[in-house]
Amino acid sequence: MALAQFSTGLPHRVSAFGGRHMLAPDVERLRLPLANAFFLGEPGHAWILVDAGAPGSAPLIGRAAQARYGVGARPEAIVLTHGHLDHIGGLWGLLKQWPGTPIYAHSLELPYLTGQSAYPPPDPTVGGSMSALSPLFVPGPFNFRPQIRPLSELPELAALKGWTFLDTPGHAPGHVSLWRETDRLLIAGDAFVTTVQERVTGALTLRPQLIHRPPAYYTPDWDQARASVQRLAALEPALAATGHGDPQGGQHLRDELRRLARNFDEVARPVQGRYVVHPALTDTSGVVHLPPLSPRGQVLRAGLLITAGLLMLRQLRRWAA
Q1: Which domain holds residue 257?
Q2: pTM for the whole thing?
Q3: 282 in a structural domain
Q4: pLDDT value for 205
């Protein structure tokens, strides 16, 4: 199956939210605010959705699905690389458009998607403007019962023929990536990304284009994150599409991914942060133990929450005027 041409590693940009970008005849990336989603399956055939974007993304996903697959089209399933809010925020709206559509995630993600546990809280101390805002990113718990199911129960669907699910934890306990050996196409989720997600400018504009660590403010286990990057680098993908940023391909991708894997602790692991030395501990029930937040992190979190509260109060007064 032919891939889109990414010989320079710098593909054409999709600048608008809702913009579609064909990676292969049966794979299309959809750019959404904060995170990407993906359609698997050729037009005219059964298809699935991978990830669902941030809250408010459902209309963009619905319109793009209609444009690609036709009026009334709905997926056979929705598959999640992981359950952070920027990857599941569109689900509430999509389940109204496509009632009864099954949602699949790794079993270690289920506690956070069935109302049992919140994710380990984000860490505002790792550096960057987006990280400073991260206490506003709700860590759950989210509840998508009865639609949510373990990935092990995913049936054999035509749109997933040739795809393998790889365990790539670190950014989330049950994070998975999708790999297709025939054309060496990788959907990496947030195991690594291609923009500096810790900065607001990087998160919104997708610049610069590079191979970058998983979003640091929401990564609670850096040893697992390193192992996952090393596993994906060993695949030597021809093309990688990530949860944040533009797809990358060619020798540029392979060289940079090897560099990240080889030097992960030096170039990726934060200098400071809540989870840098001691990870959050999780199991099938959710979070078991959290390392303490540093005094600086407590001050950052408190200041941000106070600021957000004041802004909300000002807005409420405007509405009441």
Answers
A1: 20-276
A2: 0.90
A3: no
A4: 77
